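Example 3.
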Amino acid sequence: MERWCEMSQIEIVRVENLKKYFPVEKSFLERLLTRTRSFVHAVDGVTFSVRKGEVFTLAGESGCGKTTTGKLILGLIPPTSGKVFFKDQEITKLDSEKLRLLRRKMQIIFQDPYASFNPRMKIGEAIGHPLEIHGLATGKEKRRKVLAMLERVGLTPPEQFKDLYPHQLSGGQRQRAAMARSLILEPEFIVADEPVSMIDVSLRTTIINLMLDLKKALQLTYLFITHDLAIAKYISDRIAIMYLGKIIEMGDKKEIFSNPMHPYTQALLSAIPVPNPERKRKIMELKGEVPSAIKIPAGCRFHLRCPFAENICMKEEPELKAVTADHIVACHLAKG
Amino acid sequence: MQKQLLTVENLTVEYWTRKGKVRAVDDVSFYLGKAETLGVVGESGSGKSTLGLSLIRLVPPPGRIVKGHVWLEGKDILKLREDEIRSIRGRKISFVFQDPMTSLNPVKKIGEHFVELIQTHEPNVSRKEALERAGKLLKDVGIQPERIDDYPHQLSGGMRQRVMIALAIALNPYVVVADEPTTALDVIVQAKILDLLKAVQSIYNTALIFITHDLSIAIERCDKIFVMYAGQMVEHSNVRDMCKNPQHPYTQGLLKSIPNIELAEQKLEAIPGFPPDLLNPPSGCRFWPRCSYAMERCRKAEPQLIETEKDHLVRCFLYGEMV
């Protein structure tokens, strides 16, 4: 796969020590009795940057904070602390009007194409709507742009698709329409939150390949959020693995898959089903289940489940450290 | 035919909706041997779940079984009286569904589920005895027996699915039908549950029908696979042959479109087009609008299943001249 700017090191998005804590709702009585507030540590200090022209993937199990991170980056929810930069502009400081202008450059595709369309709006109107909101095109110009975009995402003939309602499209077609709607403003950066997990198997690859084609043609950068590491491996340039609100390993795709250093990454990789009947599968056993994000374990947040945990893991939280030039891991036992 | 545990012949299920008849399962036949694992692979709407439900006559209305036989122990399940079939459901053929939260009763403790199930089928068993058996079953599926007094919401998704598996094997059935048992679960939990299914299968010597949309899992976990497309069986063989020599263009397309993390570089190829609307299925072969080998003949006539090699069935005109 060629990439339009293979060696680009220009950062388009930078995230610094980003945190999001959601307060846990308690009854009035409970609050009176305990006088403490507790929080869900959804994102708990995340730092990374996305380079121009790449597909950067946040991967992890449900509840690890990957979707919240995506929403924080676009300013859809305010962070508890930390900074997000989009090309040297600090998003976390912008007022809502400036943020709205910036949204033209940063868009999102959601997981559920059924829920993200207004059922009473025709597909063509929905796709053209952002142009009106941002005052970019109306009338004939808008119509021309909408038809061109429908064509681009493979909803052909576009004249026919623009007059359909969302319920008249299949899941795969609706996800194409969602892509058309986010691309119509000619953004540079797209957050794609599990864009294929609700789509039928035989159509998934079409959507993924379309995303890659569009990236090349329109010079896009993707932040791809997924729980499916097999798809992550196919689509990404770099991958960050999240566990309980933190990145525990991050690096070049090839590095992560050929030389996973964190025991959690190793366990995740060993659990992926492989379509090969000859393979003798060895699943790495983890103890227990993911602990609650309200009470994060002390020390390494993975130590309760880690088969290799030592004394230090219970006391000190490991920092992310470099293993090779483009591979960092947060584990006391990993050797650099 | 040799003696099999479960034999399904020409099973046809239709949903009679206001808009017309939808043939969800179209003339499906297969058999299942003792302790065998059969994977039923298909996309949403291919009829795989309807097929599973019709084995114990639980197709919800407006669905009805219009044709076929399901033979178990020399009896045709589809011809049994309602009280006779009740003694088969849960006892001889049991189910594990995708979403354990909707299959467990939220206001009943875990133990009560077992008591109800066991006492319904074995009225002589005392409550105490039933609870003892429940504790042992929970231990078998990796849950501490103390959790018997918990309510379903106190368990995690993975643990609930373990409870479902324990319930499914409680009466030592011949066949367990698992319909997307791990789709709602994370990948590590999924792997554990699949291992557990395999383990209980060998302890209890149960046959397993594994219904899934995920071909990777079916390949990894099953002995035989049959691929469903638009209500029809399009290919059926043992797993090794299916991977080495996939014959139906749909199976070939599926295999080329799933990512495999063992391969260093992979170019995935998509199957063009969309699955058909079963209210008006395409004429002829149901796959022809998406098939790159489609010939004139495929649009006109419907291909029949033929055996291209021993126990390898395929529904495609490409193989018509052989045999």
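The longest strand of chain B covers residues 20-32. The mean pLDDT of chain B is 90.
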